[in-house]
Amino acid sequence: MRIVYFGTPGFAAASLRALIHSRHHVVGLVSQPDRPKGRGHHVVPTPTKQLAIEAGVPVLQPTKLRDQAFLTSLASYDVDLGVVAAYGRILPDALLAIPRLGMINVHASLLPKYRGAAPIHRAVMAGDEVTGVTIMRVVAELDAGPMLAAVRRPIGIDETSVEVEQDLAEVGATALLEVVERLARGPIEEVPQNHALATYAPKLEKSEGPLDWSLRARAIHDRVRGLQPWPMASTTAEGVRCLVHRTTLTERATDARPGTIVEVGGDVLAVAAGDGSVLQILVIQPEGRRAMSVREFLSGRSLRSGMSIGDR
After folding, report:
1. 268 and 293 Cβ atoms separated by less than 8 Å
2. Helix 10-20 crosses helix 47-55 at what angle (to 10 degrees)?
3. DSSP per residue over 51-94, as a string?
4. Are 192 and 13 in contact (CB under 8 A)?
5. Domain count, the chain
6. 43: which strand partners?
7. To pair with 47 at 20 to 30 A between CA atoms, which of 16, 88, 172, 284?
8. What would the pLDDT profile of 155-167 be if each residue is shown by its tens digit?
9. Average pLDDT over residues 269-287
C-alpha cells in the first residue's frame, strides 16, 4: 500500500522506521515544523524528519492543515492509507478523507483510558501497573475512534515515563505493522470504544513540577517517574531549587512533618512524606548543575536530620 505518515517526536520514529522497512511504500511524511532547541536555540529537524530524509521520503511540514495547497499536494500522492503517531494536531475532515482506506493511529494507552496528549506520563503518575498501545481508526473526535488492535505492557514500579515510552514505541511499531498487513488483505474488525469509560490525559504543565511532600511517598515517587523528561519533579534544599530524577520507596515510617529530612548521610537522603511514609531520593540535580548521586549532592552541604526541604 501507499502510505502517508503523520508524526513528529521520537515516539513516532519507531513506527515510521518499521513502515519504511516493510513491503509497503511510505510516499510522504507530514511532520510539525522544526523548532529551536537547546541553549543555543538552534532550529533542528524533528526526529521523524531526520529519519525520512535518510530514507529518501518526501517531507511536508505545513503550518496550517486546512491550507488548500497542502491538501492538493497530499492528494496527488494517491494515498491508500494514512498512519498517525504523536503528530500533535487534530486532523480536519478534509484531510481524513484523502487516503482511500482512511487513517489509523498509534496511541500509547489502552483506550478508552487516557485519551489526549500525555497518556504515558499520566499512566505513570497515576501509579498504573499496566499500560499499552492501541491501534485505532482516526475520527474527528479526539482519540475516540474504533479499535483495531491493542497490546498490553506492564509498568515497573521504578520505571520512568521515558523508559516506558521507549519500549511502547517499539511495541506500537510491531502492532502497527500487523494491522497494516491485515488492512492490505481487506476489511478488518473494528471494535467501538466504550465512551463512558473514557479518561483524558492533558499535556504536562511546568506548574506540575514542584513536589507536594504532604502526599504519600508512593504518590510522590510516581510523580517523579512520570514528570520526565519534562518538566521534571522539583523541590528545594537550602534555598536551592533541585530537580529530582530518581527516588525509591522505603518501608520505614515516621511521625515527622512532611518535607522533613529523617535520615541523611552517605548515599541516604530520606524525607518524610504524607501519612507517616518516607521517600528516599537517589539522584538529584541542583539548578544550573548536572544530575548527581545523593553522595555527591551532600558533599559540602550542611543538610541534617530535622531540616525541611521543599520550602519555597
Report:
1. no
2. 20
3. HHHHHT--EE--S-TT-HHHHHHHHTT--SEEEEES--SPPPHH
4. no
5. 2
6. 36
7. 284
8. 999 999 999 999 9
9. 97
How many angstroms separate the Cα of 45 from the Cα of each of 32, 74, 97?
10, 21, 28
SS3 206: helix
Residue 309 lies inside a defined structural domain of this protein: no
Which backbone phi and psi does 230 adopt, to 5 degrees?
-150, 140
Query: DSSP assignment, residue 141?
Result: S
Tell me the pLDDT band of 311, cut-offs 50, 70 and 90.
low
Name the one residue in this structure whose C-alpha cell is 510523580. 223
Instruction: List, in sequence order, every residue forming a beta bridge with 44; answer none if it has no partner.
Output: 35
Query: How many angstroms separate the CA atoms of 248 and 231, rounded?
Result: 20
Residue 306 reports pLDDT greater than 60: yes
pLDDT at site 42: 87
Does residue 124 lie in a domain region? yes
32-46, 59-73, 169-183, 277-291: range with lowest mean pLDDT: 32-46
DSSP per residue, 84-97: EES--SPPPHHHHT
CB 270 within 8 A of CB 252: yes
**Based on the domain organization, do 138 and 164 belong to the same domain?**
yes
C-alpha span between 133 and 236 (Å, rounded): 36
What one-character-per-residue DSSP string does 103-135 give?
EEEEESS-TTTTBSS-HHHHHHHTT-SEEEEEE
Q: Which residues form the domain of 44?
A: 2-197
Residue 247: predicted pLDDT: 98
Question: What's the chain's Rg over C-alpha atoms?
Answer: 23
Among residues 248, 263, 275, the alpha carbon closest in space to that of 307 is found at: 263
